[in-house]
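Final report, closing paragraph on structural work. Over the funding period we assembled a curated collection of sequence-structure pairs, and we close with a single example.
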Amino acid sequence: MKERAGIQSVEVGFALLDVLAKAEGPLMLRDLAAAAGMSAAKAHRYLVSFQRLALVTQDNASTRYDLGPAALQLGLASLSRLDPVKLARERMAALMAEIGHTVALAVWGNQGPTIIHWQESPHAMTILRLGDVMPLLTSATGRCFAAFMPQDLTTPMVKAELARIQKMKRPDVPATQADVKTC
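Its predicted structure, as stored:
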């Protein structure tokens, strides 16, 4: 496929924004230009335009350049348009093919980790249904959520689950709230 024509100066100037985005903080002109692979004079001309557009700011005291409010606005607009569930679903078939096992996608629902999609392996018997709520202590999905969700959300569910499973005396299941923290 033939590469489409673009505006080279936009692509060249973007190198400066890319360097600023990857930097740990504001940069001096010489360092910014060097990292973008251009002369300081050339970088300065781009930076003046980026300042006019509020993509870049320059600190008056230190003269260092950093990303500006328009860059933040662009980033926030991009984040607000992301659909993490869609992104995850698009990758599930390849992951299932790579590992050879059914892959499930769960989100935190009002009852706990809830299955919202799965990609079934052709040679597996799956007993999942959409809307299934996974137990926090006896499923890998639940344990992941229990480990990373705020405790104020998981503690009541963990206590209820502990009360149900303590009678089983299973060595692979935490027996107390303190044990849950070490899983």
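The helical segments are 8-22, 29-36, 40-52, 69-80, 84-99, 140-148, 151-165, 177-181. The mean pLDDT is 90. We thank the funder for supporting this effort.
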